[in-house]
């Protein structure tokens, strides 16, 4: 009886250890994917002139990200405009 309890405890420890390793691997893969996503900014400011942990550097990087997001969803790429236009067409056809 005692031997069976020990084997069960060992199996539980191995399972917990395997879960921790899988979580670390998942976070590592997620970090690599997020860090390699390209941002198509219309105008990239040169942030290398600021030190990495300064307010100016952070504001420069955030401005680059904001301009990339605005560029991505501007013009004909805007999904909200496409939805609104589709709804207008659907309602105008339904009212005819």
Please, could you describe this protein's structure?
With 96 residues, the chain is mainly alpha-helical. The chain has one domain. It has helices spanning 2-35, 55-72, 79-95. The protein is flat.
Summarize the structure.
The chain has 96 residues and is mainly alpha-helical. The chain has one domain (2-95).
Q: What about the largest sheet?
A: none
* Distance, first to last CA: 81 Å
Uncertain parts: none
Sum up the overall morphology in one term.
flat
Helix content: over 70%
Tell me the number of structural domains.
1
What is the string of helix and strand elements? HHH
Number of helical runs? 3
Radius of gyration: 26 Å
Count of distinct strands = 0
- What class do helices, strands and sheet pairing give? mainly alpha
Strand content: under 5%
Q: Quick check: average pLDDT?
A: 77
Keywords:
96 residues, mainly alpha, flat
Describe the protein's topology:
Elements: H1 2-35, H2 55-72, H3 79-95
